[in-house]
Amino acid sequence: MNIYDFKAKTIDGREISLDKYKDKVVIIVNTASKCGFTPQYEDLQKLYDKYRDRGVEILGFPSNQFAGQEPGSDEDINNFCTLNYGVDFQMFSKLEVRGPNAHPLFEYLTGQAPFKGFDMTHSLGKKLKGLLEEKFSETLSGDSIKWNFTKFLIDRNGNVAGRYEPTTSPLDMEGEIEKLL
């Protein structure tokens, strides 16, 4: 099993199979428009601009599961991403990334790449951990997605090559992306 076994609905309502991304290096990220990590859209777009011609694809999956930070419709999300960050990588319809209604893709991803903790040297690392401990302690158990902008790096064979928590900048993934290219 790999990511090619899954389908998802694009932000404009088309269901596609992820086998469309065969032979590509893929970054899958759960996103939100009203999060402290939302500026990561800018760096994700920079990665896409730099590497798309070499076979990198970025797939954004909005979710409203973390403090209601993605309340808008798919159209609202698409407009926000395009107008504020110039996003032209593939965005998908809003979905759940953890819990009983999690999309199977995210169940697979978290099963392949366990949670290893947040980067406490990041300016938001301690704040995020404290917030989760205080208000969302149920999110801390297991390997599920902990917050918005958790990133999964996928190799050209559709296998998970790494998991990067929100406290890891997308640009800090460049070395691993280069290795997979």
UniProtKB/TrEMBL annotation:
Gene3D superfamilies associated with the record: Glutaredoxin (3.40.30.10)
PROSITE patterns documented for this protein: GLUTATHIONE_PEROXID_1 (PS00460), GLUTATHIONE_PEROXID_2 (PS00763), GLUTATHIONE_PEROXID_3 (PS51355), THIOREDOXIN_2 (PS51352)
The organism's place on the tree of life at top rank: Bacteria
Family annotation (CDD domains): GSH_Peroxidase
Annotated GO MF terms: peroxidase activity
Catalytic site positions: 35
Keywords, in A-Z order: Oxidoreductase, Peroxidase
GO terms classed as biological process: cellular response to oxidative stress
Domain Thioredoxin: 1-181
Assigned protein family: Belongs to the glutathione peroxidase family.
Protein name as catalogued: Glutathione peroxidase
Organism: Ruminiclostridium hungatei
